[in-house]
Amino acid sequence: MNLKVIASPQHLLRRWWPLLLSCAYMLHLAEEWWGGEGFVAWTARALGRQVSPNRFLVLNGLVWPLFTFLTVLAIKKPALLWFPVTFSTVVVVNATLHVLGSFASVSYSPGVATGLLLYLPVGTFGLVAGWRQLPQPRFGLAVLLGILIHAAVAVIALA
Fold first, then answer.
1. Which of 40, 37, 38 is nearest to 55 (CA)?
2. Which tens digits make up the pLDDT trace of 71-107?
3. What are phi and psi of 88, to 5 degrees?
4. Cα-Cα-Cα-Cα dihedral sign, residues 42, 49, 124, 72
């Protein structure tokens, strides 16, 4: 008799937790779009440069599925474990910038709530997990790549 072993919730969470990054990203986008005056209007007012609605939608419409696809690949292929670290870095940087933007503008930066409540905990978890599982040079490169990706997205968004 061949009995299939059902994975425990802890095993499933240990393997599939990176998908929480993609879920957090989707909720974060919803807050940026519908929260307060919306991130598009907030950037125009607070930064003096608007992220156009079309650019916001196209950029995130490309990045979210790509990041989700790469996250699933990383779950399936341990050699790509660096990607959740990169993704975690992106969300931690983004959350930090939302908090700093709120303080600097003395206003609600749409995205700050999900940044604090979702991005920081899940992103920090991802960074700690990566720190423990990856060789230090690979971890450092993954973090650097996350910082560079966030910077590139910001430049494209505000161009």
1. 40
2. 999 999 989 999 999 999 999 999 999 999 999 999 9
3. -60, -40
4. positive
Rounded to an integer, what distance in angstroms lies between the CA atom of residue 39 and that of residue 52? 10
Question: pLDDT tens for residues 4-31?
Answer: 556 666 666 677 899 999 999 999 999 9
Q: 3-state SS string over the chain?
A: CCCCCCCCHHHHHHHHCCHHHHHHHHHHHHHHHHCCCCHHHHHHHHHCCCCCHHHHHHHHHHHHHHHHHHHHHHHHCHHHCHHHHHHHHHHHHHHHHHHHHHHHHCCCCCCHHHHHHHHHHHHHHHHHHHHHHCCHHHHHHHHHHHHHHHHHHHHHHHC
CB-based burial of residue 41 (10 Å sphere; 0-12 exposed, 13-18 middle, 19+ buried)? middle
What are the domain boundaries of the chain?
A: 25-158
Structure tokens at 118: 């979702």
Q: Which two tokens stand for residue 28?
A: 């974060």
d(CA 33, CA 28): 9
